[in-house]
Amino acid sequence: LTDRRQRLFLVRLAKAASRFKVATLLGHLRLPVLIVWGRQDVITPPEVAYDFQARLPGAQLEFIEGCGHSPPLEQPFCFSRIMRQFLRRI
After folding, report:
1. Does residue 58 contact residue 33 with C-beta atoms inside 8 Å?
2. ∠ at Cα 28 (24, 32), nearest 5°?
3. Residues of the chain scoring pLDDT < 70
4. Which residues of 8-44 are buried (b: 16+ CB within 10 A; e: fewer)?
5. Do the Cβ atoms of 63 and 39 come closer than 8 Å?
6. Cβ within 8 Å of residue 89, ≥6 positions away
7. What is the structure's pLDDT at 21?
8. Alpha carbons 55 and 29: distance in angstroms, whole number
9. What is the pTM of this model?
10. Cβ distance 10 to 1 under 8 Å?
């Protein structure tokens, strides 16, 4: 996030994502899904994670404590551990 171009890209991406309703597409996925969510996410609260999981039969939902909206940036080691465990399982 030290690069100005990257910051601008992330802002544009966030604006576009806020207009797109991903929940409408979740029922179409037919592959293993891991949902990693920050337990203290105030932008997209944990209730949304439960909704996504309900729309994705068999999805694995993992919360990271002490984490907000961006688990890979806020808790990279914990996020990586969860991801590696999921990938080994599938």
Report:
1. yes
2. 115
3. 1, 17-20
4. eeeeeeeeeeeeeeeeeebeeeeeebbbbbbeebeee
5. yes
6. none
7. 76
8. 10
9. 0.78
10. yes
